[in-house]
Amino acid sequence: MSLFWRNFLLLAGLLTLTVLAWFQALRTLEQEPRALQSAQALASLVNLTRAALIYTDPIARVALVKTLVDEENVRIAVRDPADEHRPFPAGTLGARVAQALQDKLGPGTIVAREVNGFDGLWIGFAIEDEKYWLLADPSRLAGVQGRTWLVWGATALGLSLLGAVLITRVINQPLQRLAHAARRVGEGDFDGARLDEDQPTREIASVNHAFNAMAARLARAEADRRLMLAGISHDLRTPLARLRLEIELGVPDAATRARMADDVAEVDTILGQFLDFARERPLRTEPVVLGLALERALAVYRARDDVLLTVRCPPEARVRADATLLHRILINLLENAVRHGRSADGLVRLDIEVQLAAAGSEGLVAVHVRDHGPGVPPELLPRLSEPFFRAEAARTTPGSGLGLAIVHRGIERMGGRLTLALADGGGLRITLHLPAA
Fold first, then answer.
1. Where are the alpha helices (DSSP H) in 125-201?
2. DSSP state of 317
3. Which of the four pLDDT bands, split at 50, 70 and 90, describes residue 294?
4. DSSP assignment, residue 194?
5. DSSP 250
6. 310-347: burial string, b at 16+ Cβ within 10 Å, e else
7. What count of Cα atoms within 13 Å lies in the side-chain half-sphere of residue 211?
């Protein structure tokens, strides 16, 4: 789970519980004042009706009752001892109003929600020895409806979740910028990795300042390393060139001259691998036609009689990579395969196959390079890509032990991965997984 979703779910859960708590509190606090207000209005209605009935002569009572029905939606009926009534359930607004009415009108007051099978707001009162029912409008007890609560609750919850999203984004943005800057530093782009130190939050400003200081120190160290590598390349390769010239001019024996020239070339190759392993520059990824990149790297081996190549690469295969770094990776990979994958008959057989990105492959193009050499013990496979590590079977062969280390580091910088496996029938199978373009 990403940090964004973790923070969002925590905030959303907290806000949901808060909204529910406030909803229950408001609902509870809203019912008590409404019950008292409704009881006061109903008590006044009952008292006024009782007074009107007492002080109105029997002939005018008919007009009074009609007026109450027309103007106040109030009906008066004689209460019979045999009438059946049902009170409001306990805990409801009607039960609270009934209790308040009994406190105001006396203990003989009856409040019911149904009389003789007829629903309504029934209030029973007495005038001397005569008993009456007053049927009032039930909407007087209508509180806030469930749909209204649902609408307001959903609105409050929606706004709370929107606020949680905004807060989470504000919290995550500095971390996202820091992660992006760290990736830029990892790619060697120190200038583009600078973070803004003018932040309103003191802690974020402090982190950005510390990161910028670290990036500046790494940039100085990288500059010093490049200068040192340039000096090494110049100071060592110049004597190697003189040695090569002196060997050609001063050694009369052709076989000895060839062996010495091969030794100088091997030293130059090892020096080049050291420089390739230590040298890093900012990546410049672009779509690369994989078939052309492979042919460029294989050109030197196609002219050799001791190397047999089988290449299967779809013409539409394209990867997103740094063209220079990809060429360096392929050169080191093929050199490693040619050097350590020689068969018993002295020939090097390389099978190179490219598989396009398929479903479930994370959008990666696979480049399989298989040799038919002696292979390595299975327990040594995980260590083959370690710098300067050489399998026991390769101790007598030339090399620096950096070929696969260069491949491994380069492929990871471009967002891919390297896998090593023993091939069926002998030999080593190396697979490059490159991001598809």
1. 146-186
2. -
3. very high
4. P
5. H
6. eeebeeebbbbbbbebbbbbbbbbbbbbbbbbbbeeee
7. 26
Residues making up the chain, counted from first to last: 437
Backbone angles phi, psi at 345, to 5 degrees: -85, 5
For residues 180-189, average pLDDT: 80
Nearest Cα residue to 96 out of 31, 46, 44:
31
Round to whole Å and give the CA distance between 182 and 198. 19
pLDDT tens, residue by residue, 107-139? 778 888 888 888 888 888 887 777 878 888 777
Q: Which two tokens stand for residue 418?
A: 């390297």
**Would you state the pLDDT for residue 143?**
55
Separation CA 137–CA 70 (nearest Å): 12
Rg (CA), the chain: 45
DSSP state at residue 357: -
Do 277 and 402 contact (CB within 8 A), yes or no?
Answer: yes
Phi, psi of 44 (to 5 degrees): -65, -40
CB 136 within 8 A of CB 38: no
What phi and psi values does residue 129 have, to the nearest 5 degrees? -95, -5
Helices 254-278 and 323-340 sit at what angle, rounded to 10 degrees?
140
Task: Share the mean pLDDT of the chain.
Answer: 79
Query: What is the full DSSP assignment across 142-156?
Result: --S-HHHHHHHHHHH
Q: For the purposes of burial, counting CB atoms within 10 Å of the CB of 279, is it exposed (0-12), middle (13-18) or buried (19 or more)?
A: middle
Tell me the sheet residues that pair with 429: 370, 421
Contact 414, 322 (CB under 8 A): yes
Per-residue pLDDT reduced to its tens digit, 331-358: 888 888 888 888 888 888 999 999 887 6
Q: What is the pTM of this model?
A: 0.48
